[in-house]
């Protein structure tokens, strides 16, 4: 496989970060062999890194976050370009900070739909971390969202979605013809304690269950 070379603007990174990014590029290269070459993978990986570098306060995790986000974006691009046809519906949950509402919705959707559908999330102004009260409220339902992270949305991710659910991002939410859109009016859990987040969580659970029914997805879990 062709060696991945860090672009010039990333040469001020530490040696550990450079090694981590090269490892990430190699992982993605093997995963998308036959679909995308080194140049495309580098472009997605490093643009993903740049997006997180502007908002993250934990630089040691940036290469890992960049790899995860680049993988999602490349998977989305493959769907947009018709390289991936598994027939699974794709749902994208969008809110402002991608730290509360959209993450809880994603957690419920993944829990109930299992591997019968694909769910992603994003934010117009991604925060630094998932809302602690949202994490605690979801844990009460037996759903762990601590493995998620706030992230922006990109054109290929939105274009790959069959359904885009917006929650409070207003005019910032992208609109593409041919995509089904739903706007869920819900309070923002930012700054609220667990007691105040529970009604938002319960409302989201009802809405997600309804959406899964509408999409004809047999619930993987009750």
From TrEMBL:
Domain Phosphotyrosine protein phosphatase I: 89-214
SUPFAM superfamilies: Phosphotyrosine protein phosphatases I
CDD domains named among the record's database cross-references: LMWP_ArsC
UniProt xrefs under InterPro entries: Phosphatase-like_N, Ptyr_pPase, Ptyr_pPase_sf
UniProt keyword list: Arsenical resistance
Gene3D superfamilies (alphabetical): 3.40.50.2300, Corynebacterium glutamicum thioredoxin-dependent arsenate reductase, N-terminal domain (1.10.8.1060)
Entry-linked Pfam families: LMWPc, Phosphatase-like_N
Protein name: Arsenate reductase ArsC
Organism (species): Paractinoplanes hotanensis
Lineage, highest ranks first: Bacteria, Bacillati, Actinomycetota, Actinomycetes, Micromonosporales
């Amino acid at each position: 496989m062709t060696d991945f070379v860090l672009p010039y603007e990333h040469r001020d990174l530490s040696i550990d970060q450079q090694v981590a990014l090269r490892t990430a590029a190699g992982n993605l290269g093997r995963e998308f062999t036959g679909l995308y070459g080194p140049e495309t993978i580098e472009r997605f990986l490093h643009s993903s890194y740049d997006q997180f570098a502007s908002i993250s306060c934990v630089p040691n995790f940036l290469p890992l976050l960049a790899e995860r986000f680049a993988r999602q974006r490349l998977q989305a691009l493959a769907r947009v370009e018709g390289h991936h046809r598994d027939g699974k519906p794709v749902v994208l949950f969008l809110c402002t900070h991608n730290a509360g509402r959209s993450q809880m919705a994603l957690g419920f959707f993944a829990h109930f739909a299992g591997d019968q559908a694909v769910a992603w999330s994003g934010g117009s102004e991604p925060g630094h971390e998932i809302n602690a009260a949202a994490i605690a409220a979801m844990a009460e339902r037996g759903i762990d969202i601590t493995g998620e992270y706030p992230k922006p949305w990109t054109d290929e991710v939105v274009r790959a979605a069959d359904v885009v659910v917006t929650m409070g991002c207003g005019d910032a939410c992208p609109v593409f013809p041919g995509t089904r859109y739903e706007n869920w009016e819900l309070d923002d859990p930012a700054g609220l304690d667990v007691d105040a987040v529970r009604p938002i969580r319960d409302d989201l659970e009802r809405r997600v269950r309804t959406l899964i029914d509408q999409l004809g997805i047999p619930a993987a879990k009750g």
